[in-house]
Amino acid sequence: MQSLNPVVAETNDGYLSDIRARPIRAGHVYAALDTATGGRPAEGAVGAGTGTGALGFKGGIGTASRLAGGATVGVLVQSNFSGVLHVLGVPIPAPVRPPEPAGNSCVIVVATDGRFDARQLSRLARRAVFALGRVGSDFAGGSGDYAIAFSTAGPGPAAPESDLEPAFAAVLEATEEAVLNSLFMATTTTGFAGHTKIAVPHEGTLRALRS
Q: What domain range includes position 69?
């Protein structure tokens, strides 16, 4: 390897966080790198998802994966966007909607071991953003939602275009589930200036789905 090119993603969590205080210092970055471990990431109001909100509720970090033919597709989201939550097509409106600007931007990371080239990975990333519509995103103008996709496959010829079809379906399903996991694993959080984001009510959601 001749160089290391880090990719840094950003969203606006200014409702719960005092973003103008610029509290993150070099020590925080080094501590995060030193304590990083393998395995499944924590979900909900953790890490970069501590201050985010989505669809009127407390958002956060969520993950999910799918098998797509001979490949595996994994998705991690930092949910942070506006709209009305939908679960299996059923609307779950937030009882109280904070007076904050619409949008705020969702980050989606798609990882696969499929041997896809840059163009194919770009197409997978776009499908991931489409999946936000399944959970109720209003795609507000202030929301710069974006996805990054990469492959862990080694050098070699790119997969045939036919392999993209199952991968597209896998990305859509995994992104939808990851967003829902980020919400259902989150807890009610009070942050900057007493602003509060409430967690999705599990029992209320189950009642809505049964009815």
A: 19-210
